[in-house]
Each structure stands twice: as structure tokens, then as C-alpha cells.
Specification:
Distance between the termini: 24 Å
Structural class: alpha/beta
Largest sheet: 7 strands, mixed
Strand content: 15-25%
CATH architecture: 3-Layer(aba) Sandwich
CATH class: Alpha Beta
Helix content: 25-40%
Number of strands: 7
Order of helices and strands: EEHEEHEHEHEHHH
Shape: globular
Number of domains: 1
Number of helices: 7
CATH superfamily: P-loop containing nucleotide triphosphate hydrolases
């Protein structure tokens, strides 16, 4: 989190992490389409020759609380390919929360596991602990014929502490729920650690304000 006292602006950084082609960039593209035009920024993408994300996508979302403080949310993705590990570690620096985007296909179990271990290691290299960081898991590509069953996903969810969401990012399904779910965790922790509500007059219901500004109804929230 970064606070600009002069500009009365607070910036929160969220990172979408996961194996190659799991749907990280697609999540941001879908979210950008679903956002209210008055609070979304430009979606920037850097790509390689094979059309995969090389560095990151950055989608700044700015909402202004009743106190007059602007809350700026920057969303990043990391490249999933093994060779870009240094870039992933760099993008993770200063992250306030992470969405781990897993591929639901049964033959992607190993890449998912390797990417999760990679996340833990890169957080450690950055002086961060995965059990101290707001984290949600999204199982994407639920529409594919070789996807894990709902029962399998629910069984996996019971084994961990992280909230688990199911998605079809190409259709926008589950994208908003995943984002808002992470924001819930992230804001609760930041407010608890830094007393943001008390110091800046930002209401504790910030996530509801963000959801409303994004055009998300209460029924769409997890």
C-alpha cells in the first residue's frame, strides 16, 4: 500500500498470479469490460510473439470515498512461463493481495502446484509470507470438458484457508466475485494494520462503495 498525503490518495496493489495460460490476463480484460466507465483506467498489455503476457497488465481503478480521499486500486498480472520468474518476483513486490488463478483442467494439476510453490518462494524472496498475505484462489476454465468436478474443487477448498472461487473468465463468470472477495480480505487487513478508517475517514464499508462504483449489485458479491 502506498499513501500520498499531498494528493490525498491511497493506492492498493493486487496481483493475479498463476501458471501460463490459466486466464490471468483474461480476468483483467473481463473485469475491465464490466467496470463502470467513470472509474476504470486504461488496460495496458505487453505481449510476446506467441501472444502471451510478457510483463504485466495494469488496470487502475479509482474511487473517491466520502472523506474526499481517492482510493486507487492497481491490478497486475504476471507472466506464467517458467523463464520469466524474475519478472514475477518483481511484480509481486509491494503487493497487498494476490489472486491465484488455477486452471481447472485435470491435466494442469502439476503446473498449478508448481506455480503455487513458485508464488510462495517469490513471496519469501521479497520478505513476505504467504500465510500473512490476503489470498484467494480462482479455479478458472470451468466450462471445459476435462475440468475438475465441483465436488473435487470443494474438496480442495476444504484443505486450505483461502477462499476459493469458480470462474469462466472468457465469459466474465466469477471474475467480479473473485475480485471483490480479495478486496474484502485486503481492506480488512489494511484497515486493521494501519487504521485507515480512523486516519483518513474512509468508511469501513469501502468494499461496498467500490462494488457500487463498479456497477456490482449486492447479489453479485460472494
Amino acid at each position: 500500500m502506498h499513501v500520498d498525503f499531498a494528493a490525498r490518495e491511497l493506492t492498493i496493489k493486487l496481483v493475479y498470479y498463476g501458471p501460463a495460460l490459466s486466464g490471468k490476463t483474461t480476468n483483467l480484460q473481463a473485469l475491465h469490460r464490466l467496470l463502470s466507465p467513470d472509474c476504470r483506467g486504461r488496460l495496458m498489455t505487453l505481449e510476446t510473439r506467441d501472444d502471451r503476457t510478457l510483463f504485466f497488465d495494469m488496470l487502475p481503478i479509482t474511487v473517491r470515498a466520502e472523506s474526499g480521499v481517492a482510493v486507487r486500486i492497481k491490478l497486475f498480472t504476471v507472466p506464467g512461463q517458467v523463464i520469466h520468474n524474475a519478472t514475477r518476483r518483481l511484480v509481486l513486490q509491494g503487493a497487498d493481495g494476490v489472486v491465484f488463478v488455477a486452471d481447472s483442467q485435470t491435466d494442469q494439476t502439476r503446473p498449478n502446484a508448481e506455480a503455487f510453490l513458485d508464488l510462495k518462494e517469490n513471496l519469501r524472496e521479497n520478505g513476505m509470507a504467504i500465510d500473512k498475505l490476503p489470498l484467494v484462489i480462482q479455479f478458472n476454465k470451468r466450462d471445459l470438458p476435462n475440468a475438475r468436478s465441483d465436488e473435487e474443487i470443494e474438496a480442495l477448498a476444504k484443505r486450505g484457508r483461502e477462499p476459493v472461487y469458480k470462474a469462466v473468465a472468457t465469459r466474465g463468470v466469477g471474475v467480479v466475485q473473485t475480485f471483490v472477495g480479495l478486496m474484502d480480505l485486503c481492506w480488512a487487513q489494511l484497515d486493521r494494520e494501519h487504521e485507515l478508517t480512523k486516519k483518513f475517514g474512509i468508511p469501513s464499508s469501502l468494499v461496498s462503495i467500490v462494488s457500487k462504483r463498479l456497477g456490482v449489485s449486492s447479489e453479485a458479491r460472494p
